[in-house]
Amino acid sequence: MIRKHSATLHGHRTSFSLEDAFWTELKAIANARETSLAALISEIDDGRDPESNLSSALRLYVLKWLKDRR
């Protein structure tokens, strides 16, 4: 199921939609990296292509993280 989430990035509220599986993995990645979920989302947001949306950037980050762990 896709759910809408909100975060504050650089003092501005934003929202994004993610499937539950991606949300679960994103939280696990933040935990593995010993960082907050907000800090991880902010880092991903800062590094994404300005032409892409945050939801897609988060999904691609999770996919890359999981592939790199094989």
Please give a structural write-up.
- There is one protein chain.
- The chain is α+β, with helices and mostly antiparallel strands and 70 residues long.
- The chain has one domain (2-69): Ribbon-helix-helix fold (Orthogonal Bundle), CATH 1.10.3990.
- 56% of the residues lie in helices and 23% in strands.
- It has helices at residues 20-32, 37-47, 54-68, and strands at 2-9, 12-19.
- A two-stranded antiparallel sheet has the order 1-2.
- A hairpin with a 2-residue loop joins strand 1 and strand 2 (12-19).
- Helix 1 (20-32) crosses helix 3.
- The longest helix has 15 residues, at 54-68.
- Residues 3-66 form the Ribbon-helix-helix domain.
- Keywords: DNA-binding.
- Pfam families: RHH_4.
- InterPro entries: RHH_dom (IPR027373), RHH_sf (IPR038268).
- This is Putative DNA-binding ribbon-helix-helix protein.
Write a compact overview of the structure shown:
With 70 residues, this protein is an alpha+beta fold. The protein has helices at 20-32, 37-47, 54-68, and strands at residues 2-9, 12-19.
